[in-house]
Amino acid sequence: MSEAFGTPPVGSLRSPVMIAAFEGWNDAGDAATSAVEQLGLVWDAAPLAELDPEGFYDFQVSRPTVKLIEGVTRTIEWPTTRLSACRLPAAAQDVILVHGIEPNFRWKAFCQELLDIALAHEVSSVITLGALLADVPHTRPVQVSGSAYDQPTAERLGLTSSRYEGPTGISGVFQDACVQVGIPALSFWASVPHYVSQAPSPKATLALLHRVEEVLDIEVPLGGLPEQADEWEVEVSQIAAEDEEISEYIKALEERDEADEPLKPASGESIAAEFERYLRRRGPKPGDSRR
């Protein structure tokens, strides 16, 4: 069961669009959840509801945290999925943000709880945001793939039909659940270079926010994200320049990108092999006394 905070009341939002991102498998470099956090910050989001985590999460995997209030009172914060509402006077619609954690259990029930909230607030459409590790160079514009609920919308947004078959995450499951009950649903996935997958990934976050702008047809305040994205690219380039093997690899990715070769998600084997090469390069050198 979800816990509603009572503000705003059901029916008070104007044909809201629900924008959702989930931590975990769906969120390389924290790019997607960072996008939702940015939207909540600039749009002054108000708490709307949160899902009861009991039954959805393995608390030995996603542990609750203890926090101190004024250094005295201890409070427990449980890992869960939270929803917030954003009123946008300058836009034709309001927005409901979903910042979630991919559940460990009962995915169908999890999606149903989100759908119940969406239907109660008469959500007009859903946008799920995600990020994936891929063989892409950090020096090029971020590739954003995705899918839409119908072909005309896909063509309008420049989305190519996905031919992917294989494991999916909660974002894909929730998108399908929305379509099944008649709620139009889109998904956008930003490609994060697998050789620099650690968070944050501001360049990928920025690319996702540009897509949100495109769909909602309003300007999204970006704050310092453009500068952070530029600094991130410069920093990664500087680090890569110190490693000949990585530099050659990035150059090969750039050449492939110029040839317009199709994007390929990085396989687990390729990422593992790259990590092993990294460890070997950072391993003890002959005559090195460090342990």
Automatic annotation (TrEMBL):
Alphabetized InterPro entries for the sequence: Proteasome_assmbl_chaperone_2, PSMG2_sf, Rv2714-like
Alphabetical list of Gene3D superfamilies matching this protein: PAC-like subunit
SUPFAM superfamilies, sorted: Cgl1923-like
Pfam families: PAC2 (PF09754)
Highest taxon in the source lineage: Bacteria
Identification of the protein by name: PAC2 family protein
